[in-house]
Every structure is written in structure tokens, then in C-alpha cells.
Amino acid sequence: MTAVPPKTVVVVPTYNERDNLPVLAGLLADLPVPNLHLLVVDDDSPDGTGEVADKLVAGAPDTIGVLHRRTKDGLGRAYLAGMARALDEGADVVVQMDADLSHPASAVPVMLDVLLTENAAAVIGSRYVAGGSTASEWPRSRRALSAWANAYVNAILRLGLKDATAGFKAWRAETLRALDLDSVRSNGYSFQVEMNHRAVTRGFALLEVPIHFEERGRGTSKMDLRVQLESALTPWRLRFGGGPAGRSGADGGSGGAARVSPR
Ligand SMILES: Nc1nc2c(ncn2[C@@H]2O[C@H](COP(=O)(O)OP(=O)(O)OP(=O)(O)O)[C@@H](O)[C@H]2O)c(=O)[nH]1
Ligand SMILES: [Mg+2]
After folding, report:
1. Is residue 221 lining ligand 1, measured as CB closer than 6 Å?
2. Structurally, how many domains does the chain consist of?
3. Does the CB atom of residue 41 touch ligand 1 within 6 A?
4. pLDDT at residue 1, rounded to an integer
5. In terms of residue numbers, what domain contains 153?
6. CA dihedral 42, 43, 49, 50 (to 10 degrees)
7. Model confidence pLDDT, tens digit, residues 70-86
8. CA 81, 223, 181: angle at the middle one, nearest 5?
9. What pTM does this model have?
10. Domain of 64: which CATH number?
11. Ligand 1 atom showing the smallest separation from residue 78 Cα
């Protein structure tokens, strides 16, 4: 009897990623990972990404799915909806990944291998561990902002992560179930930080593996001022806020549970 490989669902939120999505779908399909599925979460992109996703589904209905949502509701909300769907559909592992080709698909097998062999609760594709890097096109100001954002988050929450704001991660299903996703409040990019904080304060081990972060493919960034403001305020809410994660963060944010991968 052969064991069924774990079901892995890659959740990809899209907003105006018409040109990038088919490229990403092709890269994922070519990976040597059995039982790998793609779930697109599209917020009614005006550029027709939703229809592009429908065509991809028609061509590979067993491995590609799409969740259509009615309005642009933020990256965090899209991920939460996609993760909930993936768990409902029996995922053993959920990978979160941007559609814009910033996150190298080639790192997915490495992240899954570390997740499953090292008994990690989640694995982060990290720009800031040894061997990781950011896009060479990034101007010095953008590098500085990213490094500063990580230092800021770690100083307030003591997550013990080199890349606390990364958006490329692989989660065990049981970890996600333990994070009480229904009560996650962050909507924009601070979603990444809130998820890490929840995991670390619950004592889960997050491992980081190095990735090279590319400049986005086609299309434009969705980062705006409201999102940046939320990112600046969220660490304080998590540390001192009244919710369950906030309470545990006030006394439990030692970062002791988070480790850097030995690789
Ligand atoms: N469904 C959905 N997806 C979103 C939303 N906002 C952003 N995304 C997607 O989330 C991913 C990350 O967004 P980006 O705009 O690339 O943000 P970023 O990576 O921080 O910015 P850049 O580095 O400039 O690309 C991409 O796949 C986007 O299409 C949203 O409101 N809804
Ligand atoms: Mg991007």
C-alpha cells in the first residue's frame, strides 16, 4: 500500500494580476510536488484576472480552483477566505504566495521538505536569513524601508524572526486551525505580522529558509497609505490590544519559539 502524499494547497490572492497568474500556475504545475493544488482568491479584478483564473480551472479542474469575491477587500481578508476554503477542502499544508512572481516557485519544494521533515509548525520563505536576498532592482530606499519595517516589528513584538513581514509561507493545517483565524483583524500587509505573532505566542516553531525575492512581474503594487498606516499600528495593537492574541503578546512575545532554519 502506498501512502497518499499530503495535500498541499497554494493560496494566491489576486488583484489585477492577469499577466502574472498564468505564469505562476505554469511554474507551480511543473514542480516535482505530488498532490499540489492552486487556489486563486480574486477580488473581482477589473483587469479580468477572475476570467483568466476560470480558464485555468477549466484546463486543470482537479488541481486548480478559484474563489471569486465581490469587491477588493484587502490581502489579509483574501488570504483568510482562501485558507478557510483550503482547510475545508482537506488541505494538510497551506502555502501562501503572491501572484506577482516575487516569490520563487522553486522554493516551494524546499519549504515543504523543511516543514515536513523538521516538524516545523510553519516555514517562512525568508529574505533576511543567510542565503536570502531581495530584488536587485530595489532602490536603496526600498531596501532600507523593508529592513526598518522588520526591525520595527521585532522590536515591538520580539518575534525572533529575521523576516517578520514576509508573505511567502507554508503552514501545517493543524497550525492554522490553532490560530483562530476567524478573529484575525489585520486586513492589509500587517496580516503577515499578526499571523506570525499568533503562532509565536502559542508556542509554535517557525523556521525560515532563504529565498531570493524578485521584483514583481507585470502589473502594479497595491500598497497604499491606509495599508502602510495599518502596518505601522498593528504591532502596537498586537502587543497591547485587548484581543486574545494581544493579551498573550503582552507577556508571551519572547520569540523563544521561533527558530532560524539550520540550513
Ligand atoms: N484578492 C486580493 N488580492 C490582493 C489584494 N491586494 C493585494 N492583493 C494581491 O496580493 C499580492 C501582493 O500584493 P502586491 O501588490 O504585490 O504587494 P507587495 O508585494 O507588497 O508590493 P510590490 O512589492 O510592489 O509588488 C498580489 O498577488 C496581489 O495581487 C486585495 O485586496 N485582494
Ligand atoms: Mg508584490
Report:
1. yes
2. 1
3. yes
4. 58
5. 8-252
6. 70
7. 999 899 999 999 999 99
8. 25
9. 0.89
10. 3.90.550.10
11. 1
